[in-house]
Amino acid sequence: MKKLILFFAFFLLATSLAQAQANLAGIVTDANEQPLAGVTILVKGTNTGTTTGTDGRFTLQAPGEVPLTVSASFVGYERKDVAVVGSNFRNIVVRLNKEPILTDEFVTAASRIPEEIQRASVSVEKLSTRQFQQSPAYSPFDALQNVKGVDVLTQSITFKSINLRGFGANNNNRFLQLTDGMDNRSPGLGFGFGNVAGISDLDVADIELIPGASSALYGPDALQGLMLTSSKNPFTYRGLSVQLKGGVNNVAKAGMSPKPFGDVAIRYARQFGTRFALKVNFQRFMGTDFIADDYNDRSTRARANFFATDPARGGQATSIGYQRNNNPNTNFQYDGVNVYGDDINSGGAFTFPANYANLPLQNRLVTRTGYTELDVVGNDGKVFNNRANVSLHYKLPGDMEASLGWYYGNGNFIRTASYREYFPNYQRHQFKAELKGKHFFLRAYTTQQQAEAWSIGQTATAINNSWKSIGQWATEFGLAFIENKVSVGESRLTADRNRYLPGTSRFNAVRDAFANTYNTDTLAGFQGARGTRFRDNSTLWHYEGMYNLTDIVQVAEVIVGGSVRHYGLNTGGTAITLKSDGSEYTINEYGAYVQASKELRISSTVTVKPTLALRYDKNQYLSGGFTPRASAVASLGTHHFRASWQTAFRNPAPGQLFLVPAAGRSGEVGGLAIASAAADLTRRPAYLESDVRDFATKLITEAQLRSRAFQPTTFTTEKIQTWEVGYKSQIQNRLFIDAFYFHSKYTHFIAAQTYYQFNSGQVSDFATNAFRTLQINANSQNELFVDGVCVGLDYSIGHGFILSGNYVHQVGSITLRDAQGNVVNDNAGQPIIKRKMSNPEVVQKGRNFFNTPENRYNLSLANSRITDRLGATLSYRWTGTMWYEQGITAGDVWLPSWSTVDAQVSYKLPQFKSVVKVGGTNLLNNYYVQGYGLARIGGMYYVSVTFDELM
């Protein structure tokens, strides 16, 4: 990194060649010759630009001499290109016509080079200033939930995971999130933290989103798509901008009054002379988080007789048969969804032995009393987030621009993995050096992270056990229930006597002892118990470059590129297992790609543009591989037809490679042989949860069960092939259509299946709860398919009003195979071939984690200019029911459908260079969850004032 910085410093100091420049000046007006402020002016084909002032005027020093072309773009108006020659370069006049439907956007994510969004050969979405201003969403990142095909899983108010095209995940490592070209993921944990450490809202220029396989150009992990967030260039967007937001959430929540939140953002950019520019950003949010407070009895396959079955069909599952009892005073095995320490399959339950002295409790499972999330975390749900950025930009001859940037993110949040985990003070620094020209870029960056967290569920269990062992608690419960002949609730109260109460000094001391002690260390005075804290202070170093060879090759547009990446893991063994010598693992990856495209003009109105791309990538622990892509777009006037065949792959996250839970604890196991050995899976085999259930109900023999023990195999990358066709068109400048169909096939799918590992290695341990639950990562033999169709429409109904809507239908299906590759039969004896993954007879055989609604749609009515000052948007979002499978303790459940109404009204105050916006999401305050065990999301009501381009 030092060498790279020194290189740039030398380059800047050594540059002494003068460059011819044109000093441009002009004005931008509407069709009625009224000046337009804030219009973006760019010299076409360069990175040079500016914006118009309050009088509509602009000045600009362009690289090179006239003639050249400037492009003007503004919210709600057609983009316009104007030729600049010797006669008008000091008096450029641009008149913009209103365009209710914006269709002439340019994107770079699809092909790594600028192209019209309608002519992109793969599906691509773009959100820019217009959408951010019109959206009722609280932030630009939140506006993604209105984009067709996007599923958002909200972990915390500041941490939301983006999911596309199935297999939704709280920590989505199949989706690549880039911020100014930098990977957003946590180097060790292996997934992006949403916008926790993203760009300040005021500095977001645009967000481009590609649904579907994108590895051909972007390498590992762009399996389901990628998102590219770009910040504003200080040469183009100058001045001081300030945004103030305030509002309330957690309205009408039981036991809680409405909670205020506040948000302040400041951006300052200044150009010094003709070559140098500086940009500074800062944003801080403070408020109360969405609260995970679902206290209903947990729906999980760990329950006895969880599935309703048909005995006549061999015990075939027909539906969910477990009848939940949400009252802990009458339910022996009450296990609240967001109550911790009472988990029936993670240290919170006791099964009375078959020879127990009192018949009513023989073989009876009872759960102990747990603690709520607010009890354990103890911060009343308070949440904060800081984001900052400083970047220096310098223009070099030949329309090159060098930049150095620092990006910082800091905050607290809760994420859901196998357990709910609290990050009290996450910090991340990213440093980037970049050199960009018209035909190339060179980029180097590093991610330096300090992430420490502790498991809420494991901490609650530890607090309970430090007070009283589960065995002693059950004994006291049993005595009260039998001898005193009292109810379940009264028996609980008896066993709970002198229990550590939340908020007391003793409770806090015990919680802090576990939460502040790493899970590799034992606590003195707690009978050898280990802490519940882990850390990921890992680093990432990335170097990449790209060159456009078109001017050299000429016969086609050809780009080449490559990247080198190094992970330096630093978890101290708390999150990822150490090597046998006690040192940390490192991971090296490299890749290279080439893409060629050629636009063929068939006639004056018909063009065809085929594109071929090929990439090779290698991870040091896995076999390397190629990911090709072939696509084409045919344009017939305003009608654009596209088709593509794309491949992609995903390298397992570091934890999926190496992870091993602490001795005796439940947790996740990596797929490499070294992880299996460390988890003692050879001496004490583990068995699929579904096989153990079949054994318990005598569907299979002990010999058959033992023959199905987990066997470590070669771990490899996860792969996907996607076929897609699509259509885009704008009809009579009133109706815009974007529709597509895709079919994807996964191979070597990586999923952490639930296994039971018996303490002694004997299957009899299952009857006495003497086992631990493991989530073992492995390549599945199954064939997985996802089919989807999406239609998006925008219609101008007149007077500036736009009616928009989109609908998405996605189905995941599976051909289920055993470890030997044979098709598995359901319990009725029928082979499971291309069946929906949500069907009970498929679910009965194990989890597949599709976690995606089959149907969802959005509707909105918007007008950014009801008057010259007033704009408004009204949106409705609906998501259908979804079969959801999550983690060790979260459960298996049909999540109900949900809908929200969102709205905003904005008013411009030109004399103050400001916009006042009043808005709200989930206006009707109907609480819903996007994933089982996650926080319930209610209304969020806000007022914001944005002062833009002051000074």
Provide a brief overview of the structure:
The chain has 951 residues and is mainly beta. 50% of the residues are buried. This is Carboxypeptidase-like regulatory domain-containing protein.
What does this structure look like?
Pfam families: CarbopepD_reg_2 (PF13715), Plug (PF07715), TonB_dep_Rec_b-barrel (PF00593). Belongs to the TonB-dependent receptor family. It is found in: Cell outer membrane. One of its GO terms (biological process) is siderophore transmembrane transport. The protein is mainly β. Among the domains are: 3-96, Carboxypeptidase-like, regulatory domain (Immunoglobulin-like, Sandwich); 307-377 and 457-533, no CATH class. The strands form eleven sheets. The protein has a 22-stranded antiparallel barrel. Strands 10-15-16-13-14 form a five-stranded mixed sheet. α5 crosses α8 and α6 crosses α7. Mean pLDDT is 89; it is low at 3-19.
